[in-house]
Amino acid sequence: MKEGKLNWDDLTEIIKHNKGIIKDDVRIHSGLGEDCSIINFGDYECVISTDPITASGSNIGKLAVNINCNDIASCGVAPLGIMVTILAPEGCTIEDIKEVMDSIGQEAARLNLEVLGGHTEVTSAVNRMIVSCTVIGKTKANRAVAASGAKVGDDIIVTKYLAMEGTNIIVNDRREEAEKFLSNDEIKEAEGFIDYISVIEEGTICGDFEVNAMHDITEGGLLGALWEMAKASSVGFKVYEHKLPIRNVTKKVCEHFKISPLRLISSGSMLITAENGEKLVKELMVAGINASIIGKITEEKGILSGENSEEEVLPPGRDELFNI
């Protein structure tokens, strides 16, 4: 099998037959397109999500904290705490492990959450450091937003700029090659994207705004996230290429490596659907968060509209990062 997420059909089949006992206390159950499960505890709910870092060789501690917290934020909830598993390859040093854990601790403190526990070991089962985290959040009952709530007629909004995370990973991991076609200022810009990959602020703003659906844009990029949200919500969508916010350095990186920024991992950008997109964009802009309306939720299939053509968006394959 190739690197990357399992394809939609295989993963659907695996999840369908392996849910254990369905509990009445769980309001949002496991399912494709859903970032989190939501458990009811009376007046409050627990929001929980888990993800590993496998596609990056740098900044893995900081990325691990943020991509998991972003899942919680996609429910409109601030994270409370994080559990960390580190699998280190043979030959690594205690300093290597400390460096990753220091990064995790510093980022957790910056995001106002506690490191609740976890597990660390050296194992021949991996050939590079793997960090997997589980994050939990707490909110009042029935407040958390699901990815499956998109409604026909909703505006589709994205925050910040697409493929920032992928651009940062590529420039860091392929630095020598990047220096041949990017200026020093462009390299610094790409390196700085790591400081903008949290979507906690926009997630909580959108939660208060009572948007219909949210999904943080991770592996598979914008088109993967759109397809997953539409499938979970039983709707379609139409988005316009000329409205998509993409930084020039990202365009140059993607052109050089012959990959699409629309299918490149994009932590730092939140996908949102809401009835009054213009009002939400204004609120986000007041908070200093760039936001763009890129299309509408429709009744049927997903469409990407270009300058002279339209194409149907197919189920997400593996992320473009794995194609380099």
UniProtKB/TrEMBL annotation:
Q: Which GO biological process annotations does it have?
A: protein maturation
Q: Which InterPro entries match?
A: HypE, PurM-like_C_dom, PurM-like_C_sf, PurM-like_N, PurM-like_N_sf
Query: Which Pfam families does the UniProt record give?
Result: AIRS, AIRS_C
Q: Where is the PurM-like N-terminal domain?
A: 33-138
Residues annotated as domain PurM-like C-terminal: 151-302
Q: What family classification does the UniProt entry report for this protein?
A: Belongs to the HypE family.
Tell me what this protein is called: Hydrogenase isoenzymes formation protein HypE
Question: Taxonomic lineage per UniProt?
Answer: Bacteria, Bacillati, Bacillota, Clostridia, Eubacteriales
